[in-house]
Amino acid sequence: MQLTYLSHSCFYLETGEHRLIIDPFLSANPRAKARPEDIDCDYILLTHGHDDHLGDAIAIARRTGATIISTFEVAMYCGRQGVKVHPMQQGGAWNFPFGRVKLTIAHHGSAHITEDEIVYLGNPAGILITTGGKTLYHAGDTALFLDMKLIGELDRIDVALLPIGDNFTMGPEDAARAVEFLNARLAIPMHYGTFDLIDVDPQRFVERVGADARVMAIGETIEI
């Protein structure tokens, strides 16, 4: 499985036969180099409904025919925009052609905000993706929580993608403790530096975690 970091909390996964993108916040992202029209994918996974995660998902799904996988509320919202969806909920798992997806809890919010209203979109989620014998955990936006220990016990996590930007999510110190709870083989920071309120030096996270952490440059691809 190849993993590419597209900035903020957006990652692109290639499993060989299938292509997935998580939280495609691109067109309104000041740090993103990829544009929505550059993305070809079969599935779009969304952790919650905030604009910096829902992002360009609907536009990409309309153009590519990709299926959006998310919580029930987010999936139903996207489905009403005329795209294919697969609704799930925290604690549930499903076997897709590319592998297994399980949603975990996350402590955050989830709403789509327009000029006229705030559309509540249920609870946020983390995502476990297991494909080719490897498991990736995308924590979404979350605070540190003790049940991360249970997530790490139930699934052997090869790569954990963890928010470190503070203010809205875990900061570097709490995210480092999350790595301990999850017992992840590799931890990669995300959700930092995009805006002033989350302008955090990722090296603070790496220094606390040690050799099991690395910072991915925007556009960088690694093999998992």
Question: What is the fold's blueprint, element by element?
Answer:
Blueprint (H helix, E strand, L loop, with lengths): L1 E6 L2 E5 L4 E4 L20 E3 L5 H4 L2 H8 L2 E5 H8 L5 E4 L4 E4 L2 E7 L5 E3 L4 E3 L4 E7 L2 E5 L9 H7 L4 E5 L8 H11 L3 E5 L12 H7 L11 E3 L1
Parallel strand pairs: 3-4, 4-5, 5-6, 12-13, 13-14
Antiparallel strand pairs: 1-2, 1-15, 2-3, 7-8, 8-11, 9-10, 11-12
CATH-defined architecture: 4-Layer Sandwich
Quickly count the domains.
1
- Under CATH, the topology can be stated as Metallo-beta-lactamase, Chain A
The biggest sheet amounts to: 7 strands, mixed
CATH superfamily: Ribonuclease Z/Hydroxyacylglutathione hydrolase-like
Proportion of residues in helical segments: 10-25%
- The main sheet orders its strands as 6-5-4-3-2-1-15
Low-pLDDT regions: none
Query: What is the top-level CATH class?
Result: Alpha Beta
What Rg do the Cα atoms give?
Answer: 16 Å
Q: Which structural class fits the helix and strand makeup?
A: alpha/beta
Fold and architecture overview:
It is a single chain. By secondary structure, the chain is of the alpha/beta class. The chain is 20% helix and 31% strand. The protein has a single domain (2-223), classed as Ribonuclease Z/Hydroxyacylglutathione hydrolase-like (Metallo-beta-lactamase, Chain A). The protein has helices at residues 51-54, 57-64, 72-79, 148-154, 172-182, 203-209; strands spanning 2-7, 10-14, 19-22, 43-45, 67-71, 85-88, 93-96, 99-105, 111-113, 118-120, 125-131, 134-138, 159-163, 186-190, 221-223. A seven-stranded mixed β-sheet has the order 6-5-4-3-2-1-15, with helices on one face. The longest helix is centred in the C-terminal third of the chain and has 11 residues, at 172-182. It starts with a strand and ends with a strand.
